[in-house]
Specification:
CATH architecture of the largest domain: 3-Layer(aba) Sandwich
Oligomer: single chain
CATH superfamily of the largest domain: Thiolase/Chalcone synthase
CATH topology of the largest domain: Peroxisomal Thiolase, Chain A, domain 1
Strand order of the largest sheet: 1-9-8-4-7
CATH class of the largest domain: Alpha Beta
Helix content: 25-40%
Distance between the termini: 24 Å
Shape: globular
């Protein structure tokens, strides 16, 4: 009997924009409350409280002449070059995003042709059997793309799939909403390949969508400033408290289900790659997950964090973080052959997913 096909990560790449935006850059912003009244709190205090809750100190924005497909292309190029992979051998290119290409100062989304087709074009891939498509799934989009790629590979339909997460959230945020300080831009890419190595690769995954009471926790609305000149434009809005409570309630349970599907013990998990949404929320999710196994506290250094310097770049956070760890660009964060890790994400929809992977 032949060996089963496994899905192995054979390459990673990223693009971190050069434009650095520090918390102090928001000091002169005029933020408004949800009821349309101007926030009367001292801006220094607002920023201090924001950093204490989210851990975000700074974030990156794309240059004015860049958009999401350009960032995705640069991350894909990095992944191909870093792994010395042949672009013509890609069977699929899956690009996870939520807003398409949004030009600087425009606020209008552009998704035709798809971002994946644009990336394939920019890479100069001639092979027509390389299928390119987009995946909007909230912040868990890149991880959902990895799950879909695993199905393609294990079915025998594909041998090599590139999954990219790219977003320019700085183009869809309301400058008068303090939540705008959370978001950032970036892209991360991962190449998943078929292998007969039964000991490594994707071991299990699980996804969920909750909509009855949760579908509108994130949505598009007008500016918080009632008389803003761009009052007809729509901006990304979030009910932060409800998202926090939702993530803390449901993400650890989906992580546990994924661990059980893989048939491993929680003590075998060496790293937790979680969507970099909010430092306080991620810490709480990690603690709640290990509490399900009666751990008093999670193992030290188990959860790499990039949010303090890169902010929340939605679908780009996990693949960017993974690339940084694999290329040993983060202090005290490495993985070695045989290590088992868990990926987890939560976002608009409301969607959740998790995946177990062995290196």
């Amino acid at each position: 009997m032949g060996s089963k096909i496994s899905s192995i990560i054979t390459g990673t790449g990223k693009y971190i924009p050069n434009k650095l935006i520090k918390n102090s850059d928001f000091i002169n912003h005029a933020f408004y409350e949800k009821d349309g009244t101007i926030a009367k709190r001292n801006m220094f205090d607002v920023i201090q409280k924001f950093q204490a809750i989210t851990d975000i100190e700074e974030r990156r924005y794309a240059e004015d002449d860049q958009n999401a497909s350009e960032l995705a292309y640069l991350a894909a190029k990095d992944a191909l070059e870093s792994a010395n992979e042949d672009k013509e051998k890609l069977d699929y290119i899956i690009v996870a995003h939520n807003f398409g290409d949004v030009n600087h100062g425009d606020n209008r989304t552009d998704m035709v042709p798809t971002l994946a087709s644009r990336v394939k074009y920019k890479l100069g891939i001639e092979n027509p059997d390389c299928v390119a498509y987009d995946l909007p799934f909230g912040c868990p989009g890149w991880l959902q793309g990895m799950i879909q790629a695993d199905y393609f590979i294990k079915s025998g339909d594909a041998k090599k799939v590139m999954v990219i997460g790219s977003e320019t959230l700085s183009r869809v945020i309301d400058p008068h909403d303090k939540d705008s300080m959370i978001y950032s831009d970036g892209a991360g890419a991962t190449i998943l390949s078929a292998s007969k190595d039964n000991g490594a690769g994707i071991l299990s995954h699980k996804s969920q969508t909750h909509t009855l009471n949760q579908a509108w926790f994130l949505k598009m609305e007008g500016s918080s400033k009632p008389d803003y000149e761009s009052k007809e434009d729509l901006y990304l809005k979030m009910d932060g408290r409800k998202v926090y409570e939702y993530g803390l309630t449901h993400v650890p349970l989906v992580m546990k289900t994924t661990v059980e599907k893989a048939g491993i013990l929680p003590e075998k998990i060496k790293k937790v790659f979680v969507h970099q949404a909010n430092g306080k929320m991620d810490d709480a999710i990690l603690k709640r997950f290990f509490k399900l196994y009666d751990y008093d506290c999670p193992p030290e250094n188990i959860m790499p964090m990039s949010i303090s310097k890169l902010g929340n770049s939605s679908v780009a956070t996990i693949p960017t973080l993974l690339d940084m760890v694999l290329k040993e660009e983060m202090e005290n964060q490495t993985v070695k052959i045989g290590d088992v890790v868990i990926f987890a994400s939560v976002g608009a929809g409301m969607n959740i997913n998790a995946m177990i992977y062995r290196f």
